[in-house]
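Students often ask what a holo structure prediction actually looks like on paper. The answer is less mysterious than it sounds. You provide the chain, you provide the ligand, and the output is a string of discrete structure tokens encoding the 3D arrangement of the protein together with magnesium ion.
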Amino acid sequence: MSVRTTRLVVEREVREAARRKGIWALVAFTFLGSMALVLLPELLPDGGDDGASVMIVGDDELGVTAALEAMTDPELEVSVGDDRGELETAIADDQVDVGVVLGDPPIVVAEDVDASIVGVVSDVIADRVVAARLTEVGIDPAEVRAAFADALPTVEPIDAERGAKRAAGFLVSMVLYLLTVILTSQVASGVAVEKSNRVSEVLLAIVPPRSLLFGKVIGVGCIGLVTLIAAATPVVVKYVAGGDLPSGLGPTLLASSIWFVGGLALFLTLAGSLGALVSRQEEAGSVVVPLTMILVVGYLTALSAGDSVVGAIMAYFPLTSPMVVPYRVAVGAGSTFEYVVSAILLFGAVVLAARVGAVVFRRAIVRTGRRLKLREVL
Amino acid sequence: MTLSVRGITQSFEHRTVLDGVDLEVQPGTITGLLGPNGAGKTTLMRIVFGVLDPLGGEVRWNGRPVTDADRRRWGYMPQERGLYREMRVHDHLVWIARLYGIDRREAGDRADDLLGRLGLADRARDAICDLSGGMSQRVQLAVAMVHTPELLVLDEPFAGLDPTAVEFLSDVIRDHVARGGHLVFSSHQLDLVEHLCESIVLIDRGRVVLRGTLRELRAASTDRFLRVDADVADDWVAGAGVTRLDRSARGTRLLLPPGADAATVLDDVRRHTSVSDFGVEAPTLSELFLAATGRDVAETDAETAT
Ligand SMILES: Nc1ncnc2c1ncn2[C@@H]1O[C@H](COP(=O)(O)OP(=O)(O)OP(=O)(O)O)[C@@H](O)[C@H]1O
Ligand SMILES: [Mg+2]
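The corresponding structure tokens follow.
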């Protein structure tokens, strides 16, 4: 294969693409989407961190106010009200989150009784009440606390960031899926246009068919990479600048790049050779339907069952792994062994597709007139 | 150097479209590959360029089988024009030249030069889809010539051109062979290209029916025609065994029977009407085709069209 002619075909593909507005719209769209993903958490007011506020009314014999003020996690803003009426108005007006009416028994007043802050406040009051009763009967509350300290349950979240990881996997899969689908049909229709308006006939007299096929695949692939870079730049910049990212996005992006490049090479090569089967541009869409279907299956599997057994199996198949593996990396479902084998199989498939695709392309591109069946050219 | 095509056979879906066709193209000679629609001209040219592989026969260049490297020194203008429609004229030419291995600067110079010669200098920055049909055809010609090929193969270069453009293209063709280049072009419009061809290969239904230089072929034919600038009715000349061929605005063309005296026939006509211009002529290309196949080119075209 002539490297020089392939390079020229790539160059033309990229230069002509750069002159089309659609490409820039796609790049801008993914860039802005990624910016939004990175910036929104910074811009939105933070829900939990600025602390909750508590209003206390009644005689504070138990030292509840001091105990609440001493809290650090979460930090509480404590105020003292005159009576229960004022307290309820303050809650209704959203000036405070929780009210405490001290008495016998104390009452915690809140709009949302399930909120964790209600539990925190109740626990503090209960602790003060128990301490007061224990002191009354002559027991030192500190001793009791010490006796129970290692017997009380502690709360341990299994994977606090599971949600964030899934979101990262979801987003990355979606971008890769959309991009692969768009570029796949772009290659097929590009080849079909060249065949139908006979540019290919002029070019075939000058360059080998392989240069035409791989030039187009690499050229369109470059456009895909530019789009991916546009999507990744805000994330990387934020990461370098030390901002917090949705957890798992970093490794996911790395894995995505590998499987994206491999998947793109595979799908675009197949699309290019299939595109040579049709004789009119309008038929190009239908010839890549099988490819698009496989992509949809891979994508939906990644989303719905990416971390299940089905996902684990599909991670090995070169046609589905580009969609499934980045998701599995994001949620941490696969093993290193799986990733290595999957990558080897994927790039092996690329080499195979390039060989078979070049034969199909060479035989099909000169047979104009009607749509060919794949087995006619194999 | 000679392009020599030997015994080319090709069929599509069991239908033979070329049946042992030979073609020789000598340098410095304009060769016409002529024949009605569907004769197999385009198929033969595709085979010459390796776009199609023939079932049988071979293409030789310089006395040995042609290679891809040889073909890169040829230029091809396919019948169905093939250009990237959204590309700009100048960019397209430069890109094609670079595919041939010409460096960017040189390619730019050649594109400028060719566009100037083809009268397209002011359209160099336009997208090809914004050009008229005749203009994009000239760009197609420029694409075929941008690397100063040794052999130019033009498939139906005259189709769709106005008379000035036909003249212009004829000059380009003459110029190419005058410099010692090889050139073969195809056409189904025999009368249009007859003045241009020096050597012809006439094919019909995939077989060569006539070949040689036009002068020899004409001389070899015993048919003689009397042209008069008047409308002639059949019965004026019927007695002498004369066949009236066509009657047009230019006058009438009469086929003389072997051994007939043209002057007598002319006198027969002048008894009925006045004649101010006349001539005794050898057969035209389409008359040669008719004599060789028993069929009219125009009729054959109409047959294939339906
Ligand atoms: N790809 C193809 N598949 C099937 N039949 C074909 C194909 N290409 C050409 N043919 C057939 O081969 C025959 C010769 O076609 P070709 O295009 O070579 O004729 P031509 O002499 O160039 O005619 P025209 O003057 O109309 O251009 C025709 O009957 C045509 O239908
Ligand atoms: Mg033709």
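The first strand of chain A starts at residue 52 and ends at 57.
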